[in-house]
Amino acid sequence: MAIKLYPIGIQTFESIRKEDKLYIDKTEYIYNMTHTSGKFFFLSRPRRFGKSLLVSTLQSYFEGKKDLFKGLAIERLEKEWESYPVLHLDMSGGKHMEKEQLNRYLISILEEKEKMFGISSDSIDPNIRLKNLILNVFQQTGKQVVVLIDEYDAPLLDVLHQDGHLRELRQIIRNFFSPLKLSEPYLRFVFLTGITKFSQLSIFSELNNIKNISMDEPYSGICGITKDELLTMMSEDIDVFAERLSLTREQAIDRLKNNYDGYHFTWPGPDVFNPFSLLNCFADGKINDYWFSSGTPTYLIEMMKKFDVLPADIGVEIEADKADFDAATETMTTIIPLLYQSGYFTIKGYDPDTELYTLGIPNNEIRIGLYRNLLPHYLAEKTAKGNTTIAKMSALINRNDMDGALALLQTFLDSVPYCNDTDYEGHYQQMMYVIFAILTNYRMEVEQHTHKGRIDITIYTQRRIYILELKFNGSAKEAVEQIKSRGYADCFKLDGRPVTMVGINFSLDKDKKNITEWVIE
Length: 521
Fold this sequence. Notes:
Helix content is 42%, strand content 17%. It has helices at 13-18, 27-34, 51-62, 73-77, 99-116, 126-141, 154-157, 163-177, 179-182, 227-233, 235-244, 249-260, 275-284, 290-293, 298-306, 311-314, 322-325, 336-342, 364-374, 384-398, 402-415, 425-437, 476-485, and strands spanning 40-44, 86-90, 145-150, 187-194, 211-212, 225-226, 272-273, 318-321, 346-351, 356-360, 443-450, 453-460, 465-472, 499-509, 512-520. The chain has a 5-stranded parallel sheet.
């Protein structure tokens, strides 16, 4: 069977089906959700994770376009195929707007829907127009209305770190959604998607019966591509990809898992791959940082500054109560909810005894992309030389040449200026964490806990484990002796790979801020 073309950049279900492009069947989830006792639903997932395609699929389903669903799971499940009028409101165009602009944008998307149904309105208030639109469509068609709101939080994300501006825009969005509860008798189904979760009080104060399915186990695979879907619906795609890279099928799957898998939205729950990255990877026939390249997380970097989050803080797995990360972003006291809801952290495990979740970075693509965005905050220049240096270091470490890698790093640090006001150890410690975190093809942990202390940096290559200890205005020998005295290498006895101890000294002297020496044993 020939491999289908990938729907790169296409988020319209009807187009994908009519053009016979690859579609990962999510229609059983849709049937189950639309045949429960609930009417109002909310789903949070990271950007480019298939939320818009899901909304578009719901639209085609409620419009009764049965022919588009031939061969899909819902074809055997649905017996009635009753059609309903659908109001699909896409909020993604409301980014980077001031208060008046956002009001005008909401009016414009309502005007578009009014024209579809031959309705006229001269109200200047978006909430009143939405209420009247729902009522008029119901009266005109004699059927309850389906309301689909995609990316409801798009106007709010870029101002998360600006409390005053956020309050203004949040009030507008809150008022806009307020008619939904009042219109309940005229509604068949309401579905909202977004990246972040805002509290009932701030956004959905009137919509107190909305069901958040973001962490519900039955819907854990509703967006993204699960491991089972990859191995069954895209089995031939894997073989073609493996052949292009001269890998075995198993090696190709491992490469895909390391770079694009690792997401869990419930525990237990299926492994979920980032769909945007996976499809682009198959289309191009190579591993690349597709998700991060498609958008710089400006709001995340700004919020990390606001909460004084250090690179080392996000490089380690953490334990958290569900309330610590499945929380409203506007009331959060740590960065954890935003990291989780935006897709930079995911669920790694769960302890039923303590009811605590383990959270961490899902895969290499996220780790490398996130730290690459942090590196310019530790160097005064955004230079391509940094990325090429790190790529060369990675190749040297892969050849077991840590000495050559550190010599290359020393030369690089000699050639670039640092940011101003950085005469303190913590800045350079975090810079070193960032640089080593960007190394590709390796698993890297910072401040890894052992029973005798914390290892500064651990690098896992295919054939070797490196333990790195950093000293500032000290000595490299002292750093290696600390590794030995605390028995850090003993922690990896059962691994089977040889362990190399690396002690590094970094000078904080005004005229020589650089690595001055290292010892490798």
